[in-house]
């Protein structure tokens, strides 16, 4: 479903949002008031474009040179706080293909799963970790306007500029009465979107009309939320439980792995924004590419945590099982999703 052709000969770059945009103001809020205040600030201003950063002009050319390069947006934001970045890129005429968001955790373990060969980040520790994995990494000290290649060898200072690492115990003032969760994670739940969290209307449309019409359809309806799928209520329950606790550690780690990408990414974000649902784990928008490598990384990172994966496609469920994840197929009836009567007409 929703598969774009993928030329493996293209160079794949991984770029953090803090390299593309000027995050000075939200970063200051994060450092002084904590992760909840940061998330609130980003959500309240999610319709306001982010200021462009020093690296945007050069990296814009990489986005546009898609015959030779693929740029994967990889961020420590969550899907809801990253919504502002996606909207800003669209305002600039850039439609990201694949992207993933790790909700405060390091994106480095997923670099190989995405085939990233050059990783650009404003987080020194991430740059070092990527270099140790054999990925060419460039650390961007945006405050000093200094770029360090192979920072481990160059001895770059361990500065924290524009780093969106969510600490485990720091609380925003308005959350001073909320408990900080310090127990073992109860379970890690990984959700597909269409036919699982969402209804099947977009998947129905894709099967009837093909990829090009589907992308136009999703772009035209990007502000219209999807219908609720069979997993909505359980996801909402887990999300509501997590919301009771301040800090970055939550009782339930919630992740998503979806074939959506390009124009279809934003409609998913808009729907989650409308519902007020965020993911405390990582979120992967794969633009139709294989889910197996990402699921394998998640399985490895889970260690002793209970981990489960829910998808409505048999082949994806098999990928999860191969990654040693308890994987369940969600029965869905294509053609019975809520229709979009205002959707674009296809000849």
Description:
By secondary structure, the chain is α/β, with parallel strands linked by helices. It folds into two domains: 158 residues, Rossmann fold (3-Layer(aba) Sandwich), CATH 3.40.50; 143 residues, 3-Layer(aba) Sandwich (Rossmann fold). It is built from 13 helices and 13 strands. It has an eleven-stranded mixed β-sheet, with helices on both faces. Helix 2 packs antiparallel against helix 3. The chain is globular and about 50 Å long.
Brief summary of the model shown:
The model is unreliable at 1-7, 145-173 and 337-347 (pLDDT under 50). The chain contains 13 helices and 13 strands.
Note the total helix count.
Answer: 13
Indicate the overall shape. globular
Per CATH, which architecture of the largest domain? 3-Layer(aba) Sandwich
Category by helix and strand content = alpha/beta
Indicate the radius of gyration in whole angstroms: 19 Å
Order of helices and strands: EHHHHEHEEHEEHEEHHHEEHEHEHE
CATH class of the largest domain: Alpha Beta
**Largest sheet, described in full?**
11 strands, mixed
The largest sheet has its strands arranged as 6-5-4-1-2-3-11-10-8-12-13
What's the overall average pLDDT, rounded? 81
Helices and strands, with pairings:
Blueprint: E1 11-15, H1 17-20, H2 24-33, H3 35-44, H4 56-64, E2 69-75, H5 79-91, E3 99-101, E4 118-121, H6 124-132, E5 136-141, E6 146-149, H7 151-154, E7 179-180, E8 187-191, H8 201-209, H9 211-220, H10 232-243, E9 245-246, E10 252-258, H11 263-275, E11 283-285, H12 292-302, E12 307-311, H13 314-322, E13 326-329
Parallel strand pairs: 1-2, 1-4, 2-3, 4-5, 7-9, 8-10, 8-12, 10-11, 12-13
Antiparallel strand pairs: 3-11, 5-6
Helix pairs in contact: 2-3, 3-5, 5-11, 8-9, 9-11
């Amino acid at each position: 479903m929703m598969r774009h052709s993928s030329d493996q000969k293209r160079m794949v770059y991984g770029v953090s949002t803090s390299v593309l945009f000027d995050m000075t103001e939200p970063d200051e809020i994060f450092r002084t008031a904590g992760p909840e205040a940061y998330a609130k600030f980003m959500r309240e201003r999610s319709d306001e474009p982010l200021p462009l950063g020093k690296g945007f002009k050069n990296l814009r050319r990489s986005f546009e040179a898609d015959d030779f390069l693929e740029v994967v947006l990889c961020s420590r934001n969550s899907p809801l706080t990253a919504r502002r970045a996606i909207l800003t890129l669209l305002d600039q005429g850039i439609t990201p293909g694949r992207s993933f968001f790790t909700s405060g955790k390091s994106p480095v373990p997923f670099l190989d799963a995405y085939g990233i060969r050059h990783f650009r980040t404003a987080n020194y520790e991430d740059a070092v970790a990527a270099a140790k994995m054999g990925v060419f990494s460039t650390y961007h000290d945006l405050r000093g306007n200094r770029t360090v290649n192979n920072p481990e060898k160059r001895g770059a200072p361990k500065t924290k500029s524009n780093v969106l690492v969510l600490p485990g115990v720091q609380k925003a003032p308005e959350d001073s009465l909320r408990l900080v969760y310090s127990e073992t994670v109860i379970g890690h739940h990984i959700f597909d979107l269409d036919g699982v969290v969402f209804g099947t209307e977009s998947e129905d449309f894709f099967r009837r009309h093909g990829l090009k019409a589907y992308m136009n359809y999703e772009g035209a309806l990007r502000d219209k939320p999807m219908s609720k799928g069979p997993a909505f209520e359980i996801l909402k329950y887990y999300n509501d439980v997590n919301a009771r606790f301040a800090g970055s550690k939550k009782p339930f780690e919630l992740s998503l792995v979806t074939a959506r990408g390009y124009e279809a990414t934003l409609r998913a974000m808009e729907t989650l924004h409308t519902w007020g649902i965020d993911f405390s784990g990582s979120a992967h928008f794969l633009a139709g590419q294989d889910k197996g490598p990402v699921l394998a990384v998640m399985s490895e990172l889970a260690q002793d945590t209970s981990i489960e994966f829910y998808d409505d496609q048999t082949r994806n469920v098999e990928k999860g099982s191969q990654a040693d994840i308890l994987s369940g197929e969600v029965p869905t009836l294509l053609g019975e999703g809520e229709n979009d009567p205002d959707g674009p007409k296809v000849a």
